[in-house]
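User: Sequence in, structure out. Go.
Assistant: Echoing your sequence, followed by the structure tokens.
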Amino acid sequence: IGDQVVLQVDSPRRTQLTLHHTATHLLNAIVRKMIALPMCQRSSAVTERGFRLELAVSGEKIALDQIAAIESEIRSLIKRNEPIRVAVCSASDLDFATITTVPGETYPDRGLRVVTIGDDVSRELCCGTHATSTGELYDFAITNVTQSKNGCFTFHAIAGAAAGKAHFQGAQIQNDVSQLQQDADENETRPEDIMIIETRMQRLKNVLLTGTDNNIHLPYCVRQRCLNVISALYQKLKDRSRESLRELIDIEMRNLMEQKLADRFIVHFLECSIILEEVQLSKATRYCTDRPILVVSITDNQVKARAMVPPAMVNDRFNAERWLAVVAQTFKAQTAAPKGQNGATVCNMKARKVKMMDFEATLESALRA
């Protein structure tokens, strides 16, 4: 006691705390005005790097378009440079129906500090420091929104120059994703182009998912929309690749039939099945309708087979079911006719998991049988 000290205020830090505190009030007010659902504030936290606002919301999930509209409205309020006023009042002077308070908080009868933004934007009881007008916030960005099981939505956001930078980076990555989408639409067949596009997609996806960890802040709505585009592109390329691989069945079976023109029956292992995710053997056996055919395939360590015998060639000693049973016995698998079809003319061997190291020898034994 009695020592002389020098007080130094960390001006940059205090400024950021002030801006983010005011931004918290703006977000709290605009969410309530734009989402017609019962809600109350659960908690908030303000730092120089950003702020968090947790709201308990009753009803449906807050949609991405609603979050975008909230962010847009706050940015508009900042551009309008609405005045911010602070007044000290007694509880008897206030209409609490028009003021935002924190549930469970106990307020004194006198010395209540009311922070008002604009004419009717926000009115809250608060003892913290605030900007003198919304224009001081410069810009605003919602960087993340999470929902807990109990219906609480937590908004993470930033204001100031960092928010402006976030929107700038968001516009850049949106352009990158748009260009990627255009390139994907223009290069639908060349495998080498598809590989390049997949590499670009993965790089952009990594930035979108891990940007915050690497101090790259992006607007939440931009990130989610870009991820949706990339997800759709992934599915489109996957479907396109699957269709291209299916064409391998056509090529392999056509070549086989040209080579086996004189054979009385066909027994074949579908080699292209090794690289396919799934195989419909009915598409392979349809190439041979004038003589018996038995086709074996393996995908994801699952072996299956199908046999077809023309009705005119079925007799007491030979039919599709008996023929396929010999192969199925080798793989210790079960057989069954397709639903509604005659097992004498068409029969399937149910998929059986095998070890790839044993498959070649077992296959050779089965085909010899």
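User: And one key feature?
Assistant: The helical segments are 11-34, 64-80, 161-186, 191-210, 220-259, 281-285, 320-331, 356-368.
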